[in-house]
Fold these 4 entries.
Entry 1:
Amino acid sequence: MKVFGLLLLCTAVHLAAVHGATRAHKALVTPLSLTAAQANPAQAFKAFAQVYGRKYSSEAEHQQRFATFQRNVDYVAAHNSRSASYTLGINEFADLTFEEFQKTHFGLLPGVNGTFRAGGNSLFSYEDVEAAESVNWVKEGAVTPVKNQAFCGSCWAFSTTGSVEGANYLATGELVSLSEQQLVDCDTSKDQGCGGGLMDYAFEYIMKNGGLDTEKDYSYWSVGGMCNKLREGRTVVSIDSYEDVPVNNEAALLKAVSSQPVSVAICASQAMQFYSSGVIAGEGTCTGLNHGVLAAGYDKDEQGKPYWLVKNSWGGTWGESGYMRLERDISQKEGAFGILMAPSYPMKKSANPKHVPEVCGFFGWSECEYGSKCSCAMDFLGLFCFDWGCKSA
């Protein structure tokens, strides 16, 4: 038992060191200069690899990635040379082709009926709402910090937690970051973890399970795994139902987003891989839905161009601190990048579960029933607990 405890202690120290190094690395990450990349591609690629921690297995792979980097620099430069309403930049995805990027950073799948709706849901509670002129749920405190799905096609899970977090905030006044990993690991009857999924199915799972665990307790690892049944039962935030926004109806989506953050599906393009700032023009954009994101508001820019404020799940160094703005009020009936084709949102009025147990220790492998407290039965010099028990609160 003591050896096992020491191993756990060493593991905890190691994880703390890893997280500290990750925070330090993130602090160093800044966008690379396009001008410098054009002037000296080899030097820029060396800086890119250093900043983003790239290590290639062979000289052949290094050269392949360098060639991809150069092509992406040319693509970004060509776009920025035009008078567009948005700019692109050299970011952490600059050594990936678009084909590679979309395999790992999207993840929206149609349902078993071939559409992006679960089916059988015709309610729209916001039909009579008068939409506000503008809304920003980030500033209102209803949106958690930007997260990162990494190399896992779990965008659907992040879109789902984003809208559930918002609904919970509006119902309770508390902003609780919820677990995407639980959805990836446990919501597997129709969704496929890192292989993709659908927000409507995820809402149905949350309803059936009685809620979701927190991000802190069931943390994200960017790979799928076995469902942790202990953590799956720690239902901290619940929802009552969900609704689909009427298809290709911008007025309806305005009403919904005016009322709460909304899960939306979009057709993510190559331009989004390198998006840096501005309002992405919507006319003539693709409508083949492949990515789940969160509509967190809407407004107009300094030139009066209307836009949707969209929270992405590619980390805070991408885009406008993890967000992008998509043009709205366009003639294309599906909206910019198909944003009007399959929006949905959870409904919440009832209180959250009251049976949440107390989690014991760093790893949370022990817990105490609601109404009791964790109590260490055996520790190591007061630093680490080998064996947890419970006592009355």
Entry 2:
Amino acid sequence: MFATAAIRPKQNTLSGRFWHSDPVLGDGFDRMKKILLAGLIATGFMTATPALAALQCGNDSSGFARWVEEFKRVAPSNGVNPSVVEKAFSSVSYNRPTISADRGQKSFKLSFDDFMKKRGGAAIISRGKGMKSGNASLFAQIERRFGVPAGPIIAIWGMETGFGSFMGDQHTLSAVATLAYDCRRSAYFTEQLYAALELVGRGDLSVTARGAAHGEIGQTQFLPLNVVRYGADGDGDGHIDMVRSRADALASTANFLKGHGWRAGAGYQPGQPNFVAIQGWNAATVYQQAIAYMGAQIDGQ
């Protein structure tokens, strides 16, 4: 998988991407929690918190079925259509691979050169240049709309899923529901679960969708609440399809960066104004540096 568990957590507001008390995060954890809180207030998801506070979390599968029934009972009182709840949970089960991936997260520090080798940076740059030229009109449209050039978007696309070649194999709703039930970060992933239900309700997430182990969706691996907040319709069909629509996934990625302070025309290397937006994508410094470097190479800077 291109977005390895060792590099996560990512998307430091809500895609990217979640947090835990890992040394790799540093001060970004507290800073991004404030951004998440503001987003939840803005989208109305904070209404879910009081009613869900009483749900009994668990650290194994034994209480999951009971938790699901209780969640299904309280979700409509938090604004979710009961039919959407039933539809979404029709194929949800406790997802052991998600828990295994979550428990297996480890911080590590690689040099920039080692990281680039490990993640196939040279191949991403080479193929990324072809992606830029082959989708020139799309990237021009995205830059006009969001002010973000092709390079960093393509670098993220390549880093996350190998340009859409592997977007994950875990049932998305099961992954998010499992982590909402799990005691370690129940509140955070409960908010993600409500966002996933919103996407199901508006037809932007299939109940059979598969993605990464923590519920990340699509070609650039957005967590559900990031899709709600930053998802952009890039192909004009009225929906945001992060899996099948290249235009939607890339436009949403640009909108995420714009939402994290991207300024049209400014530089995005370390120390330049737009590097802060790249920092919003992933909390690992070496990951940020790689996006900036590969983006510049793809953009011919």
Entry 3:
Amino acid sequence: MPIVRSLVENDRVNAALAWLIVSAIVVAAAATAWQESLLWASLGASIVVLALVPPIVRRDPSSVPPWEVLLIAAVPIWVRLYGTLPIAGFLTVAAIALLVTAEIDAFTPIRMSPRFVVAFVVLATMAVAGLWTIGQWVSDVVFATSFLTTKNELMWDLVYATAFGGLAGVLFVVYFYRHDTAGGEHHSQLGDSS
């Protein structure tokens, strides 16, 4: 997806919007930590760290992920501040997988085909959801918490994680395909390295 690289390398508008969104995520993570929701504060901090990696490594503040990807990652963090949305955690995990995918494609020599992008985001989201489930089970056994209440709820959580991972992967491919064709550089595959 060479279009990803062209969208993020020297685009001042993208950089300005991305830094504004990163600042908003920092505020949301701090407010979430103030509410003593350390998990959500950690998720917000993870998004900020992922957004800071390219500009720090490249020593260029304009080398940031696309602002749209950061916005998708920010929405569940902000939603969590004002109420509970049962699926917000899975949205955040899928957004983090999407952010990692966008950064790998834009800032490394690795090129991914559209099908691989979708599969990668889905599998990454499912893997994190699986680890999260194991963590909840350990907490329930060791600390007598009650995170896992029913098997039915657990299965639906995993289904939601898979669905949001697939949605995030498809959005990634559709978004960058749209930018690719709008720029007049239509490629038969988004993963073409030419």
Entry 4:
Amino acid sequence: MLTLLVFCLTSVNLAAAVFYSKDEAMKLAFGDDASVEMQSLFPTPEEVAQIEQLAKVKLESNLFSFYVGKKQDAVIGYAAIESHTVRTKPETLLVVLTPDGKLRNVYTLAFHEPPEYQPPERWMALLANHSIEELSLNKDIQGVAGATLSTRAAINSARKVLAIYQVLIQNKPH
């Protein structure tokens, strides 16, 4: 019985996977030769309400960190690292936007749920080039059998980052 308990506890940790460090994530988002600046964003209550309405997601925090990738002082894109609980364990995603705020990529940085619950990279690639209005599970983008909560979490993270960009970054001086 004790052996079974030890096996169960250790097998839970074996399922956890960290795919990229923060530095690797920034290179994934912007390339090796980009400079990266972090912006800390603190929305007002009115801006929080706007973000939640656009994203159709409740915000857990009033602090957001956006990373701005630049080459020769020109913005080449934006990125945000989003951590959330999928079912009972955390997932961390990198959401990358183009310089004009369109969704470019969503990458899984870490996934601690069982591997079969993780959406495949080819599904994550389907999110690219969608606007916030086009990101809805089973309407615009099909889910993945066995990974419904993970796919919903990825779409919610992408919608949240797009909404934050629209409310807090777009049309503001950089």
